[in-house]
Input
Amino acid sequence: MQVNGSRKTSPKNLLWLQSGGCGGCTLSLICAEAPDFLTSFEAAGINILWHPSLSEESGRGFLEILNSILEGNTPLDILCLEGSVIMGPKGTGRFHMLSGTGLPMMMVLKKLAARAGHVVAVGSCAAYGGVTAAGRNPADATGLAFDTKEPGGLLGSDFRARSGVPVVNISGCPIHPGWVVETLLHIASGYFSELDMDRWGRPKAISDNLVHHGCSRNEYYEYKASAENLSELGCLMENLGCKGTQASGDCNTRPWNGSGSCISGGYPCIACTEPGFEEPGHTFVETPKVTGIPIGLPMDMPKAWFVALASLSKSATPKRLKVNAVSDFIRVAPNQRAGKTKK
Output
């Protein structure tokens, strides 16, 4: 039904579960502002059936909610998972049992996903395995529909929720609260479709941006005036591992808590929205190079172009930027051009 050009929707039931993770995405979501996420959910008609940190029910009360969903008595419109799926040992899932059920969490997730209108992976762990799947991955941690960069995960690449939409991956470590609120409101509107997702299952409204966009250090980047230590003001790409030119996200155009981002806080972007970010093959604050040229170049830029432009930029770098780039505060202010004083 449409009313005044918009689709009228009934309230949407949301169930939020946590698996192999740290709970950091929930902590981030709680920090949503202007408005807070509960106000946004209420306005969009999203009803939280249960959340492990926000709901009063525990134990038997939670199991009653869960069984009502699995028996088909309570509709499940949105299933959110925070944290990776634990499939060990040897695919049994018994490293993570759901208390009171005798069942591995992975089995419960499969049953719930089959009933859900939409399935949403909140954070890079739920999306791709994330930090929990790093190293030798003894827990056999994986994402819902991806195992790092490979399609598969718990549900498989062919999975579609009742809506016909694959798993929606709101990646990030942790997520920006605005990403979750915006995506869930889009889903609740009834207009979200597979066309709104990129190849990694991320909402395009977020992933069509680069972290580099709106970076507070862009002037230093343009002139390749680079910091050498974390405390310094220059661009963090050349020496300190910043991947803002390679990572999807609007972190610098949609500041965290209304004021900041990793880069503006002095730390390089580690591309936490990208699958496999947790194992870059080097320390996060190191930029691997070959013959002095960074391996990780900006998206869509041929290597020869970057080398030529970087050389030209460095030859034109103002002294102000050269000095400030390797300083921990502004030592040289922009020159004020003297103008004629009107009498």
